Amino acid sequence: MAEDERPDELEELRWNWGESYSIAEIDGEFCATGREGHNRSKVLRADTVDGLRREIVADYATNGIPKGVSNNDYSNGITT
Predict the structure, then answer these.
(1) How many Å apart are CA 52 and CA 33, to the nearest integer?
(2) Could you give the CA distance from residue 80 to residue 77 in angstroms, rounded to a whole number?
(3) Where are the domains of the chain?
(4) What is the pLDDT along the chain (80 residues), one digit of tens a residue?
(5) What is the pTM of this model?
């Protein structure tokens, strides 16, 4: 992959965490919610992609993602 073809930070975050979290940029703020299969997921927020990455890592370390939940059946209002 050429240097100018490298994914940007948000794309890279989605690549690494997109199966467990829905990740978006909304009005200049970076947001993520766990793909837990219900609408009650906590919304993680940060001003930077790196800040959101730290929020996701901390959330995952604390809460993980429930086993047996299909990410394909997920909807919580944040779309990517």
Answers:
(1) 11
(2) 10
(3) 3-66
(4) 445 555 699 999 999 999 999 999 999 999 999 887 656 678 999 999 999 999 999 999 988 765 555 545 444 455 54
(5) 0.72
